[in-house]
Amino acid sequence: MTGTVRFLLDGEYHELRDVDPSLSVLNFLRYQLARTGTKEGCAEGDCGACTVVLGELVGDRLRYRAVNACILFVPTLDGKELITVESLKAKDGSLHPVQQALVDSHARSAAFARRVLLCRSMRFMRKVRPLTGRV
User: Fold this and answer.
1) For residues 76 and 22, what is the distance between their CA atoms, to the nearest angstrom?
2) What angle do CA 48, 88, 94 make, to 5 degrees?
3) Average confidence (pLDDT) over 43-50
4) Is the pLDDT of residue 96 over 70?
5) Which of 21-25, 30-34, 84-88, 110-114 has the lowest mean pLDDT?
6) How far apart, in whole angstroms, are the C-alpha atoms of residue 35 and residue 37?
7) Among 20, 37, 41, 91, which is most exposed with the fewest C-beta within 10 angstroms?
8) What is the mean pLDDT of the chain?
9) Are 69 and 52 within 8 A, CB to CB?
10) DSSP per-residue letters across 40-105
11) 115: helix, coil or strand?
């Protein structure tokens, strides 16, 4: 067991004690938090079905990157921000602008590809804020 793991999820502070160091972020999300939007596909980090976004402080800036939750272990979340596909919806339940753009354009793709696209697009939007306020 590891010590304490502290991280943000949806802007809320989480503190976990005595975490199994081999517990994957995927299994933690699905089985302990009932966040089933993050899927297991290959369980090897190849397919992207389990893509989440991880934010961390690098110098004086936040860096966001898309990572595979199936090969990321919970202790590595310490001091970071975790963003899942469930994190994209607004408090009023409305869709994230990227999700709405996919709906509006009748975009079709495999469910796994859609999840990867959403998480990576959200990561990009956090890095670059459009001047017009439009996506």
Assistant:
1) 11
2) 135
3) 84
4) yes
5) 110-114
6) 6
7) 91
8) 80
9) yes
10) PSSSSSSS-TTEEEEEEEETTEEEEEEEEGGG-BGGGGTTEEEE-GGGGS-TTSPPPHHHHHHHHT
11) helix
For residue 11, which amino acid is it? G
76 φ, ψ to 5°?
-75, -5
Q: Which two tokens stand for residue 57?
A: 């402080």
Residue 90 tokens, joined: 């607004």
Backbone angles phi, psi at 30, to 5 degrees: -75, -45
Contacts of 116 (CB under 8 A, 6+ apart): 48, 49, 51, 66
The structure tokens listed for 13 are 């502070």
Under 8 Å between Cβ of 63 and 83? no
Dist. CA 31–CA 134, nearest whole Å: 36
Q: Which amino acid is at 134?
A: R
Burial class (CB in 10 A: 0-12, 13-18, 19+), 58: exposed
Tokens 């389990």, residue?
Answer: 50
